[in-house]
Amino acid sequence: MLRGLTTVSFWADDLAAAKAWYTELLGLEPYFERPGYAEFRIGDHQHELGLIDRAYAPAALATDGPGGAIVYWHVDDVRATFDRLLSLGAKEYEPLTPRGPGFVTASVTDPFGNVLGVMENQHYLDVLAALR
Asked: Could you say which of 3.10.180.10, 3.40.50.720, 3.40.50.150, 3.40.50.2000 is the CATH number of the domain covering 68-132?
């Protein structure tokens, strides 16, 4: 069974630029690096966001545009986060979209062609409160 998110992998032609962009966005440096790879631990559960040199991407990921699954990261203010992402050079992929009471999503394409989803998610907050 699926037990939880371990690492989300994003690919970049320019790993140094991607690392700098995500360091600016997240306000922290990667906790782990090796040639062709940088990894951040973020959020309440220290989920991992890995940046990988596109040279190591599986051939099936070769595409002219964004693709794959959209992973939504919980944020406390989806509009402010969405606006910040756009101000850092990301492009709108999906506008702010209400999904029902307590759930709003949006997504962007980062400057490296990856889709990054953000979401206000009441279920996330409920689970976090129950763990405390």
From this structure: 3.10.180.10
